[in-house]
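Async update (no meeting this week)

Hi team, since we skipped the sync, here's where things stand on the single-chain job. The sequence we agreed to prioritize is pasted below, unchanged from the tracker. I ran it this morning and attached the output directly underneath so nobody has to dig for it. Comments welcome in thread, and please keep replies under the output.
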Amino acid sequence: MKNQFYILSLLFVFLSISVFAQKGRGHDIEMSEQLKAMRVAMITQNLNLSSDEAAKFFPIYNEYSTKRENIKKQLKENRKEGKDLTSTKLEASFKQSFELREQELTLDKLYFEKFKTVISVEKIMELYRTERDFRRMLLKELSKRGEHNKSDDEANH
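Output:
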């Protein structure tokens, strides 16, 4: 299992290097697609999904993931709008954030029940762990990139 994780990590590093090295308008879309593919591979591997389970699970997971991303995007936009607001508008912004987080919790509860129809509760727990590990791995890689780019910038000046 650890060997598989390290192999997946190396795959991630190599793909991310090629993705981060690319320029242009399609860069963000391509990077997003590659990250989604890596996430799917990691989930499939860590949950040890059979082809039948994967065929039933991923349509539900993709739907869940899209809805969750939309809520996260709204939360992010709400935080941006929260700067330089009057007290009244700031209070409204807080209330909207609370509502969005409630929507997120409701979504999690709903999809927990949907996931249970196609995979075990143990695999659902592993799904949440895998998503957390994937985010950590991504953040770690982005942090390395930032440090690398910072040292390059300092060397060039």
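Quick observations from my side:
The mean pLDDT is 83.
Residues 71 and 100 are 6 Å apart (CA to CA).
Reply here if anything looks off.
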